[in-house]
Structures are given as structure tokens and as C-alpha cells.
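wait is this the right file?? whatever heres the structure
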């Protein structure tokens, strides 16, 4: 038996989609765009990988920022990118897309001599094709002689080794040079030359998939029944015809056609629906499920994606797909469970342990500067040094503000670190409201996507209920974070005025916040004085949100030995994942640096050493 570590190789387009965010406007009036990996083959690679297939991409990207983006995103989705070649002379393809109305989805392809159309036989070998159960071809990569040759080489290898060949007809007239650049949304132009090329590929196929218009171009006639007869005359492979909201019809040789009903939904954006359909179909077909089941998965995945704005980022994973199939909603995200699964399954990175240096402080550092006789304009340099110390201490991440820490944030972003930044105003005093915002929720769109939104509130445990304005602000931050695909860290410090932190109130506050609809990805909580309190907080999380990432312990300038004691008390409570500590580690060295008693290197060394000690203590617990 041939060893096949891959389920699917996708040969074809890998580009960047820029989706206009102003729904209902002509494309020329779009003001802002959301970026995603695009291209038929790349979308299917992502969609099938999300559903659990071992998918690989066979293509090229440019040696530039967008090429690096495509490669990184594919890899992050679990797609094998070992055969994604970097082309030093061509740019990564680009597409601008918009949503004018239910029937109008304008798009412009920027693909003149683009990288993915230069994929060549030398970019892969026979063993690679033989390592997969199936090979996906797309019609666009038959539109020019050079990439047609590449596709046929891959097909020859596949036939030689029993790798199934799947043809997605993927007909875009503009990409065959049949329309002008401004007609990228056109789906059908009759062309005998295109029909001949597609028909010549049919005998090698094990599965053929297309819309009714694509069946027409493959069959060389606009009469559907006649087109199907032409295709069947060239291949005995199953044919699946996508029929939009009606679902699809499968044609298996020797059997009656089988209609598989679609899902009644409210369409937002049809772009990418076919790629989602193919992802669901292949997920079932490659695993050997009956074609009817596979077609239903395809219908469901397509229905989900057309109710959302983007394509590849909106592809469902298995749990999400099955939840949608069991629901009766007309938009995927109207089902709370579907929406929840889509959000949590799309989170980036795994953090089984999280040791974080926190220096998002503002008012405390302003006070420290004043006491040290230093100007506040030295604080940005201080924060950059603290970031250096965090890296030297091998911190998993940092908490940094945008007011004084903008430069530290910029140098730390994109380095694979866990980064969070605050949106709350520093609290001026114990009688101030429990939460005021310094960063309005709409401003989150300007943040790098990897930044976690941190919000700190001071609920008063003496009150019979939570402050309504505080709750509404927390929920507004959460909504904005979810809309911009960010995680949320909620820090709660229950206090009555100037009194000490009321640790026993923490689980009750959390319970109330969950009851109001708050579901943070992370909690940041005071160091508890008893193991029972750690267990209570973990039980609250377990009751309300099993997908919560966990708890980080905050410091509140407590002495190291007190923090270390609390670390020990949290042992065995799996929900506690680490710490985010600041002033305990850097308050004294920062004061010495601000007053000129130590230099930059000494500051970095002292903070890094203190952080390392705390990490070691955390791991000893």
C-alpha cells in the first residue's frame, strides 16, 4: 500500500483578497478593506484543513509582503506549504471585492504575470503528488499554455500512482482574457477554445465540480442536459453541479441524478461560496462518505460562508459546521453556538503556560517619574528598555500601553509574542467610576490583529449589583474585540474605596459578569490567599465557558515572596495558566533608572533577572 501522508494537494491560485467593508456601495466608493488569503485553490486548502484534512498547497507567491502573508496564513491554518515556492520576479496576485447588493458583487483581479500563474513542473516532483490521496485542479490553471502544462504534469503523476484527480471548473472569463478588467464578476462567456481545453482534461478526472454556468462551458453548450451528456461522454467520474440556494445535483454514471437540498439562508456575499462548497464536499468524499453526505457538507459550508463577509477566514471547522447543520438559522452567526465556535476555533496560538511582564501602567509611572525628579518624556524609553528586559528574560508576552509604550509595542509586534494592551483609563482615585475607557471600541480597528484587548475594572463588592455603566462598557469592548477578531483579557479587582482587595468577592463578581454576557478569553485576577478561592474561580469558569483560555495572576506590587506563595496555592488548578506581573519586578529598578542611579544595561539586567526568578518560582509550584 502506498503511504499517503496527505489527503489533498491544491494546485492553483493563491492570492490576497481585499474585501470592501462599505456594504451597498460601488467598489469605486469603498473606503476601507479587510485582507484575507484568497484564490480558489488556496481557499479550498484552508477550508479542507479546517475540517481536518491534511491539505497541501502547490503554488507560487511573490517575494514581498503579501507573499509572506499568504504563506504565513496558510501555515497557520495547518496547510502544508512545503511546495509554496517564492518567485523573485513576480508579485502575489491581488483581488479587490465589494458587495453592492444581493445580486451585484464587483471585483477586480490584479493578476498580470502574477506569481501563482508561474507555477512550473520543476516546483514539485512525482513523489509529492503520489503522497496525496487526491489532487485538486482549478480551471484558471488551464487558461494558459505554461500553467496548463504544469497541471497536466501533476495529473500524469497522479494517474500513475492512484492519486484521485478533482477538477473544479472555476470559470472566470476575465482570467481567460475574454472580458475587460472591469468585468471580473462575469461568470459566463461562451468560448469554444475554453470548452476544448476543459474537455481534454475530463478523461483524467475522478470528480468534476462546477456551477451550472461552468457545466455549460465544459460541455460547450448552454443547454444543461446537453452539456452534461458531453461531459459524461468524456468521463465516467461523478459530476456535481452547484445550484446556489437550491443546493446541488450529483450525477453518478449509471444512476439517476440526485438532488441534495440547500440550506435556506439570507445571502450577504456569494464570493467564495463555491470554494466553501468544495471544501465540505471534499471533506466527505476523500474520507469515503457517500456522495450525498459529502454534498450536504458542501451545501452547509457554502451556506455558512455566503452569510459572512470574507471567504477563507469564514470557512467552518467540523464542530461549527455540524452545529450549523443542526440549527435552523438564516445566517450562520445568528446561532449563538455557531458564532461561539467560529470565534474560539479561530483563535491564534496555543498558550498552555503564559509568563508575562506587565508594564502597561501610566499614572503609576507618571507618579514614579515625579518622585524621581524625571520628566514623563523619559517614559517611552523606559518602556522600550522593559520590553528588552522581557525578551532577555524569555517572557512569553507583555502588557504594554499605547500612550508611553507605542515604540515598545511596535518593536514587539510580529515576533510571536503574546501582547496585550489596555483600553481603560487609569483610575484617578477610589471614588472614581469602576471603569472609564481611554480607547474607544471603534479604535480597535487600528490595532494590529495580534494585540489582545485588556480592560481593567474595579467592581465594588459592597453594592447589591454590578455598576450598569461598567458592565455596558465591558460588553462594548467585548463586542468591538470580537468584531475585529481579537481576544479579550478582563482584569477585575474588587475593592471598597481605599480598602484592600476583597479576594473572596472575585468568584462572585465573575459569576455576575458571566450572567451579563461577558465571556473573556482570559481573566487577570489578584493573587489569592487560599487554594479554595482559586478553585472557586476555576469552577465559575468551568460552569460558564469551557473555552476560556485561563487565568493570569496579577501582582499589585506585592513582594516577590507573597506572589510566590500564591503561585503555590494555585497548584493543581488547571485554569491558572501563569502570571502578568509588573511593579513587583521593575518598580525599584525603574525608580533608580529615572533618577540616574543606574544605566540602561543595569535596568535591563535587573528586571530580566527578577522576571527569571519569578518564572522559576512559577514552574516550581
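ok assuming it is, sequence goes like this
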Amino acid at each position: 500500500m502506498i503511504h499517503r501522508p496527505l489527503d489533498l494537494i491544491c494546485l492553483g491560485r493563491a492570492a490576497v483578497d481585499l474585501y470592501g467593508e462599505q456594504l451597498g456601495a460601488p467598489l469605486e466608493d469603498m473606503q476601507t478593506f479587510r485582507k484575507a488569503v484568497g484564490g480558489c485553490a488556496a481557499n479550498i486548502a484552508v477550508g479542507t484543513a479546517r475540517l481536518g484534512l491534511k491539505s497541501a498547497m502547490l503554488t507560487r507567491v511573490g517575494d514581498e509582503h503579501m507573499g509572506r502573508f499568504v504563506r504565513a496564513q496558510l501555515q497557520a491554518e495547518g496547510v502544508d506549504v512545503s511546495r509554496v515556492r517564492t518567485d523573485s520576479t513576480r508579485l502575489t496576485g491581488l483581488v479587490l471585492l465589494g458587495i453592492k447588493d444581493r445580486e451585484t458583487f464587483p471585483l477586480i483581479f490584479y493578476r498580470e504575470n502574477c506569481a501563482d500563474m508561474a507555477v512550473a513542473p520543476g516546483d514539485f516532483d512525482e513523489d509529492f503528488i503520489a503522497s496525496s490521496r487526491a489532487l485538486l485542479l482549478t480551471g484558471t490553471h488551464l487558461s494558459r499554455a505554461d500553467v496548463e502544462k504544469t497541471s497536466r504534469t501533476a495529473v500524469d503523476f497522479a494517474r500513475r500512482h492512484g492519486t484521485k484527480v478533482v477538477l473544479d471548473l472555476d470559470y472566470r472569463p476575465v482570467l481567460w482574457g475574454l472580458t475587460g478588467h472591469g468585468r471580473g464578476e462575469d461568470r459566463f462567456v461562451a468560448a469554444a477554445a475554453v470548452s476544448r481545453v476543459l474537455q481534454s482534461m475530463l478523461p483524467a478526472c475522478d470528480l468534476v465540480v462546477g456551477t451550472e454556468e461552468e457545466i455549460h462551458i465544459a460541455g460547450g453548450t448552454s443547454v444543461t442536459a446537453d452539456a452534461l451528456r458531453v461531459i459524461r461522454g468524456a468521463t465516467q467520474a461523478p459530476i456535481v453541479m452547484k445550484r446556489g440556494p437550491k443546493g446541488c445535483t450529483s450525477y453518478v454514471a449509471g444512476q439517476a441524478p440526485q438532488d441534495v437540498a440547500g440550506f435556506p439562508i439570507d445571502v450577504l456575499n456569494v464570493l467564495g461560496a463555491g470554494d466553501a462548497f468544495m471544501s465540505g464536499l471534499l471533506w466527505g468524499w476523500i474520507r469515503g462518505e457517500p456522495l450525498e453526505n459529502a454534498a450536504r457538507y458542501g451545501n452547509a459550508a457554502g451556506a455558512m460562508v455566503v452569510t459572512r463577509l470574507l471567504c477563507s477566514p469564514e470557512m467552518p471547522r467540523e464542530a461549527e459546521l455540524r452545529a450549523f447543520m443542526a440549527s435552523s438559522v438564516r445566517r450562520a452567526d445568528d446561532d449563538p453556538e455557531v458564532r461561539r465556535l467560529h470565534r474560539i476555533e479561530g483563535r491564534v496560538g496555543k498558550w498552555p503556560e503564559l509568563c508575562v511582564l506587565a508594564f502597561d501602567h501610566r499614572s503609576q509611572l507618571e507618579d514614579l517619574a515625579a518622585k524621581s525628579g524625571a520628566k514623563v518624556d523619559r517614559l517611552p524609553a523606559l518602556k522600550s528598555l522593559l520590553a528588552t528586559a522581557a525578551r532577555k528574560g524569555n517572557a512569553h508576552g507583555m502588557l504594554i500601553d499605547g500612550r508611553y509604550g507605542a515604540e515598545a509595542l511596535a518593536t514587539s509586534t510580529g515576533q510571536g509574542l503574546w501582547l496585550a494592551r489596555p483600553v481603560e483609563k487609569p483610575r484617578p482615585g477610589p471614588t472614581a467610576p469602576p471603569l472609564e475607557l481611554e480607547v474607544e471600541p471603534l479604535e480597535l480597528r487600528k490595532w494590529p490583529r495580534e494585540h489582545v484587548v485588556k480592560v481593567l475594572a474595579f467592581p465594588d463588592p459592597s453594592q447589591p449589583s454590578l455598576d450598569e455603566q461598567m458592565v455596558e462598557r465591558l460588553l462594548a469592548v467585548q463586542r468591538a474585540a470580537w468584531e475585529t477578531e481579537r481576544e479579550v483579557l478582563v482584569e477585575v479587582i474588587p475593592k471598597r474605596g481605599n480598602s484592600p482587595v476583597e479576594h473572596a468577592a472575585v468568584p462572585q463578581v465573575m459569576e455576575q459578569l458571566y450572567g451579563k454576557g461577558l465571556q473573556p478569553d482570559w481573566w487577570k485576577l489578584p493573587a489569592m490567599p487560599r487554594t479554595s478561592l482559586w478553585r472557586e474561580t476555576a469552577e465559575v469558569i468551568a460552569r460558564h465557558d469551557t473555552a476560556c483560555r485561563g487565568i493570569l495572576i496579577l501582582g499589585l506590587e506585592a513582594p516577590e515572596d507573597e506572589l510566590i506563595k500564591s503561585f503555590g496555592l494555585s497548584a493543581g488548578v488547571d485554569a491558572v495558566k501563569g502570571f502578568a506581573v509588573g511593579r513587583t519586578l521593575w518598580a525599584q529598578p525603574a525608580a533608580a533608572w529615572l533618577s540616574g542611579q543606574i544605566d540602561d544595561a543595569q535596568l535591563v539586567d535587573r528586571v530580566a533577572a527578577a522576571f527569571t526568578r519569578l518564572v522559576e518560582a512559577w514552574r516550581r509550584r
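The mean pLDDT is 95. so i think its the right one actually
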